[in-house]
Amino acid sequence: MSELFDAIDALVASRSPLPPPAERKRLRQAHGLTLEEVATTLDVRRATVGAWESGRTEPRPPQREPYAHLLKQLARLYPSSPTAAEGSTPAATAPPAVVEVAPSAPVVAVAAPVPASPVPASAATPPSPTAAPRPARGSRRPGAPRAAAASSPASAGSGVYAHGPLLVLDADGEQQVTGYGTGGLLLDVPARSLPALVEWALAEARVGAQKLHASGKDADPLLVLTAAACERYGLPAALSDTERSAGRLPEGHKVIKLLERAGWKLTRRGLGPWARIYRPVTGGRRQCVQLCIPSWNALDDRSWGHAATLEPAELARVLGVYAHRVMTPVGSTAVSGLELMTALNPPTRASEPDQDGKRHSEHRPGSLGTQGLDPAPCEAVDGHPVLAHLPRFHIRGPQERLFEEAYDWARDLTDTECMQPHLVGIDVNLAFGAAANGAVVGLDAPPEHVTRPVFDPAVPGSWLVDLSHVDLSRVKVAKQWRDLEGGLLPSPFTPTGEQPEGPAWYATPTVAYAVELGYDVTPVEAWVRPRSGRFLDGWYKRLRDAYVATMADLGVAEKLSPGGFLAAMDGYKGRDPELGIVVDAVKMTVKGGIGKLQEKARGGGWVPGQAWPALARPTWRPDIRAAVISRARINMHRKMVALAAATGRYPVAVLSDCAVYTADGPSPLDVLPYDQDGKTVPGSFRLGVSPGMVKHEGTQDVLWGVGVLEQLTAEGRVANLARYIKTGEVTARDTGE
Question: How far is CA 130 from the centre of its chain?
């Protein structure tokens, strides 16, 4: 009988009453909750909660009852007028609101939101698509009247970080400084000097972000200074040639002296495009503010597009979306990508209380620890201290150095391929991110040297082994032997695609792929890391969710049909160019973060054999970089082999994550075989937005390709059509896409 009552309870819970979608969103924002917080609590994805709030889907058990309970509790705290409850006042036409700031700070005015851009509302996050109007230059914006706190569309919630992760500061003709926050937030900034600005940011501005891991630390406030704000605080609007070359202001600059007199310090990188101003931790309290100065080239156009030219409100929106979905930026996208690894997987944690009830910092399992590690000699870059014994100008070959790099391979077209009219490029989404997912890498212990080891694909490391016997003309595909035209495929073991000629060093995924293809391997020696784990899984998931959510905002959703996906991708950045900037920044965060794992020495004073600062980081790990790049290259080769075995199509060029094929038509659908049910070759390329799936990179005529090959060969340049397939323009610049 009790089972019957349980079934009745479940039936009632499955129909728990809910307010209208617009009211659900109002209640969440009124309490300062983000989509991420609600989603995490209910164990669903952020986009799912957004879909509930937009009315596209309805909650189902087991989440429906707790979600209804949450809304009921919030409705008691924030009762609405009858019209609001009925959803008759859309958010796009809500009246202006006023938000109360810290007691001693000027009052904040929240601009009325403008109609949202034509993208799905379900994937929206706290930084709203709306933007606050910019005060006219040369005039002072009157202060808003002080009022009780009211909900503001998509602004950060109450609490110590009520005003979001960052502010873009701009000054008008009367030297009044305005702070532009996320969700259309405006603050009057009273500080008259840079030291006072730092104090204000920490004591009154209520800017920052919660930590991404329970054992991590909160994100410091980020202040982005426009050129006008720089001049207001005694900084140059642009760096001189000498300052730009040095990457910072000279140490004797008057503003730096002001900071020093006020007890503030700068990190080793000084006061440059990205600066960290801090005081030593006292009483467990961290005091640190990040500065970003776009007019000093803090927002490199290779990563941030035209972000540096945006108006303050628009820039606040772009950086705010990135901050909420990825992290508050702390430098270039590469630096932020590296810092995100530590933020999501901190090296230490608080211990259990000792006899006196005190907790201490201890190593956190699964992390990289707090100390830098020396690499194995084969993993070290030239000039590393572990190679100091080598003769000067010694060149290491494959038997001495690990060469795990992305593809740069091309071949001549066959006669049959020359008869086809089109060259079609397909590009893997977030290829290095997808390769990082599930990668087993060494953690906090140094590598161990082994002679004549038995290869174990579960053990990360570097292996000296001869793979020249692997014949691509006959390989296993899905565990079945298949005959292929091996000469039309690149070797999976070298970045150039050339067949190895003898023993060479390889990362574990590369050697494991040789075994997968059906061949035995006999390593001569190895450097292995028995203490290992999936260190990058959380990093991948965070960046994957940021990418997919932003693409959804741009109208490119998951689970589209192949044709629907291609249609959605057509001109997708034009639907919201600012979110297009965020998409590119996320991609560069993935690529740059992996690259930073092997940061090389910089600066004219470095001498080979001497250590450089990056080596002290626990995240200076060329072995992890090698493992990810190896997996990315192997993933690419596995898909090309599967496509060749099923269709007889072979790539004519591969550059990193882009492959070019000849075809009878101009679409990827003319390369990739899809049936009427939308299914394609198992294990091969699939069209879609998710990392690891592919998009259309570009199409050109075969005659164009023949002309490019002739031109570049005559100039003595590497002729890789994948480098130019996107636009057809032959340039010297390598975008790395």
Answer: 23
